[in-house]
Each structure stands twice: as structure tokens, then as C-alpha cells.
Model the fold of this input.
Amino acid sequence: MPTYTSKFLNLPFSSFQYPFQFPAPMGYAPDILCLHLQPLLVSLFLLICGFTIIKALRYHLFEKPKLPPGPKPWPIVGNLPEMLSNKPVFRWIHNLMQEMDTEIACVRLGNVHVIPVTSPSIACEFLRKHDAEFASRPLTMATDIISSGYVTIAIAPFGEQWKKMRRIFVNDLFSPLRHQWFQHKRNEEADNIMFYVYNKCNNVNDGGLVNIRDVSQHYCCNVTRKLIFNTRYFGKGSMDGGPGSEEVEQVNTIFTLLKHVYAFSASDYIPCLRVFDLDGHKRKVKKGMRRMEKYHDPTVEERMKQWNNGSKRVEEDLLDVLISLKDDNDNPTLTIQEIKALTIVIHYSLLLFIEVIFLIKLINIF
Done:
């Protein structure tokens, strides 16, 4: 395809000139393309300038909030450049507050105001007196995807949906009676992990070595699967009591998702950047959710069919409890979307809780 070189392009809002090359489409001369391109660039420039001016006027004349002192922010991006160039961030903020001689400050990141506090008395104001205003979880790209649009509890913002899920958690899922009901399932997994560790110690190929991190992670996931789905493995597992390939993939996926739940992402502070996925978080989180749904969704759908056709009537695990919940009109309390999202979030929550308890017991032993 022939290549044409245009004349120098004079932009009305630019003080420099530059040549550029491009293949001219059939039927169009390069100069004609330049004439079509100039109005588009001018319109885009005016649109950005107009939006910035309107936002600045509204901020200074009508909605200027009373905020604590802080560093002067840049337009649009706020203090993101300073934050990215000063690591670790918490130390930069602490040094900044010492220089400003203040116990409360305001750092603007994009369109989000971050309020760091170093005074215990001011912290109590946030946590006690104004608890309702500051009790909500931050809205991020990762939490939106993982919670299926904030229909769960652990990472959902404060509101009616959060209150509904909290009642279900406290009254139906994790009550003292339910804790005793699942005691035999936890005992089964404790016996299995002892069998697995014994086999690892006697394994000549591994030199009798046991990776405590792997053992604790898989034990906690086994307990969680047993409580939610009444099964130890999604696949066939391993002959020595260890995990199969399906369980290894699920455990790795869970910790990948947990790593990105509240990880820093520029698009959380400048929403218009989400479409570009500059740091790759969105791609990784969606990939992880597809892996989790690959194991969870078929089990949930099959179990709902069993309850609907009457082949299952006895509650054996947390999934049965979620499906069998009814409201005052004898209608299902939860939708299938909420149940699927809850099984994933419960998996994260139980995994972290059980692993902490397990590691504390190991520390006490050694």
C-alpha cells in the first residue's frame, strides 16, 4: 500500500509543528484527512477544558467542603503522583502530617478524599460517634467483581443488602448451635490432615519434609469445602490424603483474589481509567472468578434442582441452609445469584479465619 506524507499540521492550540505519515485510504487525499481531523481534536480539547472549568467552579463556588489540611492536589489526578513516587505510602503520609504539624489530614487521590488520623481521640470520633458514616466498605473494581455487584456481606458497602446478609450470617450460618452442628465435619478433616502429614513424613522422595504453609492452606480449604458443600475434594483428590489438581488450582486462585481485594489500583480513584485496565488487576480478578465459578456454580445449581424436585429435604451443609431459607411469605430469601456469591465469599472468610486459628495452634505447639 503506498504511503503519503502530509504537509506540516498546524493545530490551533499548539505552538509546534510536526510531520507525520499514514496510509491514505482510497478516495481521500492526506490534506482532506487533516481537515476532518482538526475539528475533532478541537472539539475534544474544548470538551476537556469545559469539564475541568465547570468542575473547578462548582467545587470552589458551590460545594467546597470543609476538609482537613493536606498537600495541594494536581488537577484530576490529585496527589496520586506524589503517592506513587514515595514508597512506602504510609510512611510518606506520616512524614507529611509531621511536617504539617497536624493529627488529621486530607490527601486527595483522584476523586477520593483519604483522611489519615494519628490521634486516638479523633480516631474514636470516627469509630464511635460517626460510626454510621464511616462503617461502609470502600467501593473498588475488585470488590465489585468478587461480590457479584455487592450482594454479599464481607466486602459490601453498608446498606439494606448488608443488613440482610448480616442477619443471615448471625442467625442462620454461624450461630453457636450451627457451630456445634458442624463439629463432626471439622473432626473428619483434622483426622485427614494428620493422615496426610504422616504420609508426607514417610515419603522418601520428599525426604520426609512437610511444607507447613501448604498443609495449613489445604487443611483450611478442606474444612471450608466440607462445611459449604459437604465434600473434601472437587475431584478425586490424592491417595495420601492430600489435594488433587482441582484443589490446588482453587487454593491458588483464592489467594490471588485475596491479594487483589483492596490492592492499590489507579482506576479505583480515577474511574475513567477502568476501561484501560492499566495495572491488569481487572483481568486477573475476572480470570480468578471464572475459575472459582467453574467449581462452585455447577454444585449450587445441582443442589437447587435437588431441593426443587424434592429429592433432598435434609440440611447437611451451609449450601443447604442458604437454599432452604424462607421469608414470611414462604418464598426463598436468597436468589441463586446471591447464593453463588455467598459461597465464594464464605469460602474466603472461613479460609482466613480457620488458617489464623490453625497457625496460632501450631505456634503454641512449637
